[in-house]
């Protein structure tokens, strides 16, 4: 279950930001509100999924909804930074409870096209229409009176999007805390070179810009979770992209590191649900919903 943390306060007129940390998936979800109008968005909500038991609960989303109700916030958006590979989205539950619209970057269509055949998902449309809105790079919209800018930041996946809300940017998996580095780029459609360029797009923002991570794993030597930093801190101290690291050096490092990483535990259930905007595959005629696990046999192990 995601646990609420203290508000992250910025300059006068900046959005109210409340973080909710889900330790089982190391995911940070955010409740972001305009203090004047009380309109709010939830960014990267987590659905509680027990992989071993195949059971789903909504405790993490309920914690966010309870915090919004207590603060008299009206949720108008559930925003995804990308189709996550490590947790299932709680966005449909938020939409059902609040009427908030589900938004993601327009390049989700590319991710849908990549994974539709992987899961033989014949019911899946590849036009992004499962989502309520697809944001283009540079598109602007509002949460109450606060302007939001969508920033296309591909590399981790082809569809990653960061949200610039006032003085804060929610970077998804494009960056981690400076002492942890950057996200992998070896998923289908990922690209380490694009990731480097996306990171530098973010690092070109004013140095005081606050950056909010989607994940934290406690870097070696750090005994607490953390998810807020600044452009200046990332420029000076990110272990993978600090000043002086060239694009070729980053690509070589990222490629070698990614080759050592195993697949996320929830990769298969997460992707097939999240490319449907958090919707599960339709129930079958016995009333049960099933997730698909593609199985690849090594030649010597295959038995017809």
Secondary structure layout:
Elements: E1 3-8, E2 16-22, E3 27-33, E4 39-43, E5 46-50, E6 55-57, H1 59-70, E7 74-79, E8 88-89, H2 91-98, E9 101-105, H3 108-115, E10 133-135, E11 140-143, E12 146-152, E13 161-165, E14 168-170, H4 192-203, E15 210-212, E16 228-230, H5 231-237, H6 247-258, H7 267-274
Parallel strand pairs: 4-7, 7-9, 9-10, 14-15
Antiparallel strand pairs: 1-2, 2-3, 3-4, 5-6, 5-8, 11-12, 12-13, 13-14, 15-16
Helix pairs in contact: 4-6
Report on the structure:
It is a single chain. With 304 residues, the chain is of the alpha+beta class. It has a single domain (3-260), classed as Metallo-beta-lactamase, Chain A, CATH 3.60.15.10. It contains 7 helices and 16 strands. It has helices at 59-70, 91-98, 108-115, 192-203, 231-237, 247-258, 267-274, and strands at residues 3-8, 16-22, 27-33, 39-43, 46-50, 55-57, 74-79, 88-89, 101-105, 133-135, 140-143, 146-152, 161-165, 168-170, 210-212, 228-230. A 7-stranded mixed β-sheet has the order 1-2-3-4-7-9-10, with helices on one face. A 6-stranded mixed β-sheet has the order 11-12-13-14-15-16. Helix 4 (192-203) packs across helix 6. It starts with a strand and ends in a 30-residue tail after the last helix.
Strand content: 15-25%
User: What is the CATH topology descriptor?
Assistant: Metallo-beta-lactamase, Chain A
What string gives the helices and strands in order?
A: EEEEEEHEEHEHEEEEEHEEHHH
Average pLDDT for all residues: 94
Number of domains: 1
Structural class category? alpha+beta
**CATH architecture call:** 4-Layer Sandwich
Shape: globular
Reported for the largest beta sheet, the result is:
7 strands, mixed
Question: Care to count the β-strands?
Answer: 16
Query: What's the arrangement of strands in the largest beta sheet?
Result: 1-2-3-4-7-9-10
Distance between the termini: 42 Å
